[in-house]
Design brief:
single chain; mainly alpha; Non-ribosomal Peptide Synthetase Peptidyl Carrier Protein, Chain A; globular
Amino acid sequence: MQTESSAALKSDTDILSDVCNLIEEIIGQSVDMNDEEISLETSFSRDLEMESIEFVVLSEKLQQTFGSDLDFASWLAGKELGEIINLKVSDIVGFVKQCQA
């Protein structure tokens, strides 16, 4: 588990790698992306077809990885439905980076 101070030292590339690993842990092999890698442009709804319960698990794993100050659930609750539907991995990476600032 990362501490909040060590999480602040992570680069964008490290954050992306960690987020992708967390997503892969959560969805496993349940989604066929035609052997494509998860990237910044990967859509949670269109590409990964993530369910709401998977977002709950992602929220918990993000806090475990990047620190307890990262409140993904509140951040997500502040979004409009259209924003949630169009959520991409880059949005999560940006949120984590913002929380480290």
